Amino acid sequence: MAEIKFEDLLGSGAHFGHVTRKWNPNFSPYIISEKNGVHIIDLESTIKAVNEAATYVKKIVSKDGEVLFVGTKKQAQDIVQQEADRCSMFYIVERWLGGTLTNFSTIKKSIKRLKLLEKEGSNLYENMTKKETQMLNREKLKLADQHRGIKDMRRLPDLVVIVDAQYEDTAIKEAKRLDIPTIAIVDSNTDPNKVTFPIPANDDSMRTINIIISALADAVLEAKGHDLNNNQVLDENSASPKENKHISAEHIQEEE
């Protein structure tokens, strides 16, 4: 996994939390100061959390586990889809359908229906009027949009990675109910305790989201044995760890 640099997070605005009146008291361990009515997040905590989350991702994937990336807010959709595709994992970027995890058997039936509609030469369309065919096509488009990132997901994921734990509260509750661990970007308005691996950061910044989700996608690829530098599969002993360099949290004040 490429090293996440303090300066990159700082430049992306990852340290900007929400206005102080909207904060969640349980988030206090990740706050280092307040500026102009906005909480400032400790980026060293962010780096530590990303590294811990990436380690867990590798552990899951190395055991043939599957990861589901979730980001349905506008700032996250393209990033989540791109990074999930890059590491060949599943994703949801449209509206989270209630029961996606807790009622997965129904979701599987819906996906089966989609595949039937998409099957070339299906006798489903035989002897149908033009209007009936149009209705089926509309159904197909709707299902394809809803399930495009999970169409090939045959079982529940072993880990769920989420952008914005507040926005995706339903997904977190469903995962928790099924004892599926979660990794989530958590802003200062959210209780980090509801997530297995909270990553404190600005969840509205596209650059911040890209840095963090890309690092987790890299962790998936590394666990699969891919060399991130040249896209070739690595020998188990060929990778060497990179040295981590940290900058003191006080540097935030200087930059601002």
Structure, briefly:
The protein is an alpha/beta fold.
Index terms:
256 residues, alpha/beta, Rossmann fold, five-stranded parallel sheet, three-stranded antiparallel sheet, 8 helices, 8 strands, disordered C terminus
Just give the CATH class of the largest domain: Alpha Beta
Number of domains in the coordinates? 2
Our measurement of the CA-to-CA distance between the termini, rounded to an integer number of angstroms, reads 29 Å
β-strand percent reads 5-15%
What series of H and E elements makes up the topology? HEEEHEHEHHEHEEHH
Uncertain runs: 231-256
Main sheet: strands, sense, barrel: 5 strands, parallel
Number of strands: 8
CATH architecture grouping of the largest domain: 3-Layer(aba) Sandwich
| Helicity, as a percent range | 40-55%
Secondary structure blueprint with pairings:
Elements: H1 6-12, E1 16-19, E2 31-35, E3 38-41, H2 43-62, E4 67-70, H3 74-86, E5 90-92, H4 104-118, H5 130-147, E6 159-163, H6 169-177, E7 182-186, E8 197-200, H7 206-223, H8 251-255
Helix pairs in contact: 2-7, 3-7, 4-5
What does this 3D model show about the protein?
With 256 residues, the protein is an alpha/beta fold. The chain folds into two domains: 6-101 and 156-255, Rossmann fold (3-Layer(aba) Sandwich), CATH 3.40.50; 102-154. The protein is 41% helix and 13% strand. The protein is built from eight helices and eight strands; from the N terminus they run αβββαβαβααβαββαα. The chain has helices spanning 6-12, 43-62, 74-86, 104-118, 130-147, 169-177, 206-223, 251-255, and strands at residues 16-19, 31-35, 38-41, 67-70, 90-92, 159-163, 182-186, 197-200. It has a five-stranded parallel beta sheet with strand order 5-4-6-7-8, sandwiched between helices. It has a three-stranded antiparallel beta sheet with strand order 1-3-2. Strand 6, helix 6 and strand 7 form a beta-alpha-beta unit. Helix 3 (74-86) runs parallel beside helix 7 (206-223). The chain is elongated, with a radius of gyration of 21 Å. It starts with 5 loop residues before the first helix and ends with a helix. Mean pLDDT is 87; it is low at 231-256.
